[in-house]
Amino acid sequence: PAGALAQDALTVEIAKKATLVAEGQAVLVTVTVTCPAGSEVLEAFIYVVQDERSSPFVGLPVTCDGTAQTITVSVPASDIPFHAGNARVSGYVLLTSGASISPTARIKIRA
User: Fold this and answer.
1) From the CB of residue 72, how many other CB atoms can be counted at a distance below 10 Å?
2) What residues are paired with 43 via a beta bridge?
3) I need a labelling partner for 46 at 20 to 30 A (CA). Which of 25, 30, 37, 76 fits?
4) Residue 96 burial by CB count (10 A; 0-12/13-18/19+): exposed, middle or buried?
5) Nearest to residue 31, comparing CAs of 46, 10, 19?
6) What is the CA radius of gyration of the chain?
7) Smallest Cα–Cα separation from 102: which of 36, 40, 46, 30?
8) How buried is residue 17: exposed, middle or buried, by Cβ count under 10 Å (0-12/13-18/19+)?
9) What's the distance, Cα to Cα, between the start and end of the chain in Å?
10) pLDDT tens figures, 1-57
11) Separation CA 52–CA 5 (nearest Å)
């Protein structure tokens, strides 16, 4: 059945809008992660690139239970603050099974 396939999939969706906080010192990014029940996460992180500057990697606290988990994380700016406008979020999730995904999305940062 199609439902069984969906539960076995590793998926990551990045929200298209993020929120500027702390006068640009960070951006709140929302990510929805689904991974198979019983799977273990080896690595899970995202980062934001704006004006060709990359933020530090921020870990995603993911528990694999077969359901979609929506997580909002605060991604700090590196040396120059973020500003309202376009940016890109990239990430990586790796399970102990070897399954992995490297999502990227263009986002709009709002003040």
Assistant:
1) 11
2) 94
3) 37
4) exposed
5) 46
6) 15
7) 46
8) exposed
9) 44
10) 444 444 468 999 999 999 999 999 999 999 999 999 999 999 999 999 999 999 999
11) 38
Phi, psi for 55 (deg, rounded to 5):
-75, 170
pTM value > 0.85:
yes
Q: Which of 90, 98, 109 is nearest to 31 (CA)?
A: 90
Helix (H) and strand (E) counts for the chain? 1, 10
Task: Note whether 20 and 49 are within 8 A (CB).
Answer: no
Phi-psi region of 22 (alpha: psi -120 to 50; beta: other; left: phi over 0): left
Amino acid symbol at 45: F
